């Protein structure tokens, strides 16, 4: 009972102090009173980190809208520092998302508000501000390197025209004959009367062994 009475006295004392405080003092007071008792506390003032961010994420980038095109389009808003489009390491093709950094955070905010859900080549661009603490430290690594697309025509031509050994050539011909037999069976199963032409060059003679006299 004594503990209960003392607690009620503290509660009544705190309520009287709040009621007798002046309006200015009440506004300048803390934001909340802790339930466990003690002096009033004030919430820490947190500054919005997005107001200082200059990096934007851009998603659903259409085909053909690459680094040069992005720089020419977005420079109408303000100065651009860096642009990066995510690409496949093997093929070099775009992954349809990238990042752009402006010199001013105000410009970045305007671009995010203006270009989000903007219809471009039948794609709705997804533009979002990335807070500074969420920007990866290796995001701009190698961004100044010149990207050179792979010449897949030259690579395929070289693979097709390469010199093959007898075993490699025999394996290639066996694969062609196997696919041809499978195609013939499908035609017969469909009830179509058709004589498939024979494959020329399927009979490859084995190389002769040459014995040199001493």
Automatic annotation (TrEMBL):
Keywords for the protein's UniProt record, in alphabetical order: Nucleus, RNA-binding
SMART domains, per the entry:
RRM
Cellular component (GO) terms are: nucleolus
| Stretches the record annotates as Disordered | 1-20
Locations listed in the record? Nucleus, Nucleolus
Tell me the protein's name.
RNA recognition motif domain, nucleotide-binding alpha-beta plait domain superfamily
Q: Which stretches make up the RRM domain?
A: 54-132
Instruction: Output the Gene Ontology terms for molecular function.
Output: RNA binding; RNA folding chaperone
Grouped into one coarse class, the protein's main location is: nucleus
- UniProt cross-references to InterPro entries, sorted A to Z: Nucleotide-bd_a/b_plait_sf, RBD_domain_sf, RRM_dom
- Biased composition (Basic residues) is annotated at 1-12
Species this protein is from: Helianthus annuus
Concerning SUPFAM superfamilies, the annotation shows: RNA-binding domain, RBD
Which PROSITE patterns does the entry mention?
RRM
Database matches in CDD domains: RRM_NIFK_like
